[in-house]
Amino acid sequence: MDINSLPSSTDNKQDKVRIYVVQRCARLLELEHGVQTAIEEIATAAKAGANLIAFTETWLTGYPAGVFGMASWNDPEARSWYKKLVEASPTASSSYITRIRDAARENKIEVVLSFNEQARESGGTIATVSR
């Protein structure tokens, strides 16, 4: 294909994609802190000229991976950690996620954010796209 026949970037009114990647550590299972920090990072990224911000996997509250490697499912410590994980996991339409969506909209930036999601509203899927 002739490169000259491809649409130019000026057709999209944007010449470059500037990506801001967040590599801060989350506070384990502290949802409110994660939301507030995400909102701050979104504003910082936008001010730096980024049009896309990406957070690392399960960044919002972290992920206590050791829970699933503990002795057994009936282990009291494993069950305690799993309960904390569920309690710190928002639903996609929760006020926590709405605040992040609002920050993205206000700062005119796209956000890539994965989080542990309670499945009550969505039937168990973790693939959620919101605009």
UniProtKB/TrEMBL annotation:
Record: active site: 57 (proton acceptor)
InterPro entries given in the database record: C-N_Hydrolase, C-N_Hydrolase_sf, Nitrilase/CN_hydratase_CS, Nitrilases_CHs
Matches recorded under Gene3D superfamilies: Carbon-nitrogen hydrolase
GO-annotated molecular function: hydro-lyase activity; nitrilase activity
Domain of life: Eukaryota
Residue span(s) of domain CN hydrolase: 17-131
Regions that span the bilayer: none
Family (UniProt): Belongs to the carbon-nitrogen hydrolase superfamily. Nitrilase family.
Name this protein carries in UniProt: CN hydrolase domain-containing protein
